[in-house]
Automatic annotation (TrEMBL):
It comes from Clostridium thermobutyricum. InterPro entries: ABC_BtuC-like (IPR037294), ABC_TroCD (IPR001626). Keywords: Membrane, Transmembrane, Transmembrane helix, Transport. GO terms for biological process: response to zinc ion; transmembrane transport. It is found in: Cell membrane; Membrane. It holds the Pfam family ABC-3. This is Uncharacterized protein. Belongs to the ABC-3 integral membrane protein family. The chain crosses the membrane at residues 12-30, 50-80, 86-106, 127-151, 171-202, 214-236, 242-262. The keyword Transcription does not apply.
Length: 264
C-alpha cells in the first residue's frame, strides 16, 4: 500500500488536513459557529463546478469562491446579529443554486463524484504542493493571531475594549476556514468535510483538559481518524470521505465508553 504513489500523496495530504481542520474546528465549536464550517463546505460545491466548467484547478476556484462566501457571511452577520442561521441559509442557497446550474448544463469536463465523496486516486503532486503551501500559510497566520483569536473567541466585547481589531481577526479567520475547506476536498469530499472539523474536537472535549491540551488532542484524534479512514478505504475500495467520517464517530464513541467505564 505505502509503495503506491497515489497512497503516498493521499497520506501526505491527509496529514496536513488533520492538523488544520481540528485547529480551526476548536475555535468554531467554542464560538458556537460550527454551522459556518458546514455551510462553507457545501458552498464549495459551486467553486468546484466553476473550476470544472472553465478548466481551472478546482482547488483554486473553490478557495476563491468559498473565501467570497465566508466574507459575505461575515458581512451579513452584522445585519442579522440575532438570526445568524439566516445568513447561512442565504449563502448556502446561492452556492448550491450556482453549482446545480453549472453541473446540470453538462459543461463540466470531469465527474464530480471524486469531489463529493473524496478520492485517494485523484490527489496529484500539484495538489500536494498547493495543499502544503496553503496549509503552511494558514497555520502561520493562525499562530500569529492565536492570542487575539483566543481573546475574541471567549470575550468579543472585552477584546474590542482591549483595542483588538475584532472585525479584522474575524475576517482573517473566515478566510483560513475557506482555505482549509478548499484543500480538504480531494481527500474528504464536499459532503463530509465538516465531520473532520467538528468530530475530533467533540472527542477531545470529552477528556476535559485545558484549551491547549484540548487543541493538541483534537489534532491527534483528527490524524488518527484520517489515517485509519484512508487505510480502510484502500482495503474496502471505497471513497475515503465516508470511511474517515465513520472512523471519527467510532473514535468518539470509544472515548465516551472508556470515559464512562473509567468513572465507574
Amino acid at each position: 500500500m505505502f509503495e503506491l504513489e497515489f497512497m503516498k500523496n493521499a497520506f501526505m495530504a491527509g496529514a496536513i488536513i488533520s492538523v488544520l481542520c481540528p485547529f480551526i474546528g476548536l475555535f468554531l465549536v467554542l464560538r458556537r459557529h460550527s454551522m459556518i464550517g458546514d455551510t462553507l463546505s457545501h458552498s464549495s460545491f459551486a467553486g468546484v463546478a466553476i473550476g470544472l466548467v472553465i478548466g481551472v484547478n478546482p482547488l483554486i476556484t473553490t478557495f476563491l469562491f468559498t473565501t467570497l462566501c465566508a466574507l459575505i457571511i461575515e458581512f451579513l452577520r452584522g445585519y442579522y446579529k440575532k438570526y445568524a442561521e439566516l445568513v447561512m441559509s442565504i449563502v448556502l442557497t446561492l452556492s448550491l443554486g450556482i453549482a446545480i446550474v453549472l453541473i446540470s448544463s453538462g459543461k463540466a469536463s470531469t465527474s464530480v463524484n471524486s469531489f463529493l465523496f473524496g478520492s485517494i486516486l485523484t490527489v496529484t503532486k500539484e495538489d500536494i504542493l498547493l495543499i502544503l503551501a496553503t496549509g503552511i500559510i494558514s497555520l502561520l497566520i493562525l499562530l500569529f493571531i492565536f492570542n487575539k483569536l483566543l481573546y475574541v473567541t471567549f470575550d468579543e466585547e472585552g477584546a474590542k475594549v482591549a483595542g483588538i481589531n475584532v472585525k479584522r481577526i474575524n475576517y482573517l479567520f473566515t478566510i483560513i476556514i475557506s482555505a482549509t475547506i478548499s484543500m480538504s476536498i480531494r481527500i474528504m469530499g464536499i459532503l463530509v468535510i465538516s465531520s473532520i472539523i467538528v468530530v475530533p474536537v467533540a472527542t477531545a472535549i470529552q477528556l476535559e483538559k485545558n484549551f491547549k491540551k484540548t487543541l493538541l488532542l483534537s489534532i491527534l484524534f483528527g490524524f488518527i481518524d484520517i489515517i485509519l479512514g484512508l487505510v480502510i478505504s484502500y482495503y474496502i475500495d471505497s471513497a475515503p470521505g465516508g470511511a474517515i467520517a465513520i472512523t471519527s464517530v467510532i473514535t468518539l464513541l470509544v472515548v465516551l465508553i472508556l470515559k464512562r467505564f473509567l468513572k465507574k
